[in-house]
UniProtKB/TrEMBL annotation:
Name of the protein: Molybdopterin molybdenumtransferase
Cofactor: Mg(2+)
GO cellular component: cytosol
Matches recorded under PANTHER family: GEPHYRIN, MOLYBDOPTERIN BIOSYNTHESIS PROTEIN
InterPro entries, sorted: MoaB/Mog-like_dom_sf, MoaB/Mog_dom, MoeA-like, MoeA_C_domain_IV, MoeA_C_domain_IV_sf, MoeA_linker/N, MoeA_linker/N_sf
Lineage: Bacteria, Bacillati, Bacillota, Bacilli, Bacillales
Substrates-to-products reaction catalysed: adenylyl-molybdopterin + molybdate = Mo-molybdopterin + AMP + H(+)
Keyword Transferase annotated: yes
Single GO biological process annotation from the record: Mo-molybdopterin cofactor biosynthetic process
Species of provenance: Paenibacillus oralis
Pathway: Cofactor biosynthesis; molybdopterin biosynthesis
Domain MoaB/Mog: start-end pairs: 196-334
Family: Belongs to the MoeA family.
The entry's keywords: Magnesium, Metal-binding, Molybdenum, Molybdenum cofactor biosynthesis, Transferase
Leader peptide range in chain numbering: none
Amino acid sequence: MTTDSGQDKFRRKALQVPDAQARILPYARRLPAEIVALPDAQGRILAEQVTSPHPYPHFRRSGMDGFAILSRDTAGCGANRPALLEVVDEIPCGFLPSVPLTPGTAARIMTGAKVPDEADAVVMFEMTETIRQDGKTYIRLVREIEPGKNITPVGLELAAGEVILESGRKLGAGEISVLATFGINQVAVSKRPRIAIFSTGSELLGIGEPLQDGRIRNSNAYMLASQVREAGAEPFMLEAIPDDLELARQRVRAAFADYDAVITTGGVSVGDFDIMADLVSGGEVEMLFNKVTMRPGSVTTAAVKDGKLLFALSGNPGACFVGFELFVRPAIGRMLGALQPFLPEMTAELARPYTKINNFTRFVRGRLEAREGKLYAYPAELDESSVMITIKDSDALIVIPPSSEPKEAGEMVTVLKLPGGSF
Ligand SMILES: Nc1nc2c(c(=O)[nH]1)N[C@H]1C(S)=C(S)[C@@H](COP(=O)(O)OP(=O)(O)OC[C@H]3O[C@@H](n4cnc5c(N)ncnc54)[C@H](O)[C@@H]3O)O[C@H]1N2
Ligand code: MOO
Ligand SMILES: [Mg+2]
């Protein structure tokens, strides 16, 4: 005789979050690179190291509109002993000096123009007085100018051959401007993992369908697609699967052939229609874990098939969201070769008490606020696994370790910063 509780989905060995993550990551293999045009590289992950092909700046550059001079011509000058220099050249930006500077001469020069080799300082217009005499132009200086003044030396920012960007770096405005500076208009970036998303549950309505009693709209698929996109991968929302194990098997099997990883939401607990729990324990895939010592998302499940990952996340929106952030995000990050695949960790002061106690680690959604040089974390009032609405107001997941005591306001907590949120 078999009893319900004899089934595999009831017998679960809970893993700690880091152990569960460690089981997944070996299967999150880096995808090959593709070449994209620089303007399309925004937000992508660099797939190769980039070194500077030349120093930057590559010529000595004027930092001011003024006059290039030999600083020694101003030695000892002052209000009563002005220096008088003849202006022998004019150098707009993009042009080269046309005559060598000799002692007693100066070249009119604009910000960003190449400084004559002989000059060792630029004096700004405002510090000079122009005198025209016998068809010649002179400047009068009443202050000593130190060597190097207003000249940007060659290679100030970068020498030739320096590593500018490491492989795995996310490309934003700063990185893109560096690449443009060096004339790199084609960039090798990691291919975006193609991720299949299935919702499961006979209660699910398409979001365009009118409400029906006892049924809900499929919000998780959209939430997950947004999370997938945010993590740098490409989401494919596939047709939702009703609670039919055989159908789920076929659909998931087919998805493995076409996508780099599969996410499902719903049906991973111990309910009669929790088909993903049955699928994962049924030999179709190799289970990595089906319980994690965390809340929400204790039933988060992961498996592999043909070397590809299946993330069977909870159907409860809060648990689904957290399951993605803790397990799918780092896997996508690894597939992209990202330098930092995990949510960034910070320390904050708990701004309100958190009274729920648990023997599992809680990842409580919350808001961050910085005041007077301190970071405060406000746990959401409603943070149940089944609650969706407060996800939108959260900047971070507040980590509450297992404890038999409530956490007081003022205690320091670790927070995992979420990429969305307004903080
Ligand atoms: N006897 C037990 N019952 C439950 C346990 C348990 O240990 N023993 N665990 C609870 C916990 S914790 C969670 S979390 C949930 C997990 O449920 P499932 O992952 O099996 O998800 P479903 O049963 O399919 O749905 C749960 C809930 O979420 C709604 N849902 C599902 N899919 C979507 C979607 N795409 N968009 C929006 N909402 C969705 C669904 O309608 C249900 O309300 O189990 C507890 N039960
Ligand atoms: O697994 Mo459930 O999300 O802990 O609440
Ligand atoms: Mg269920």
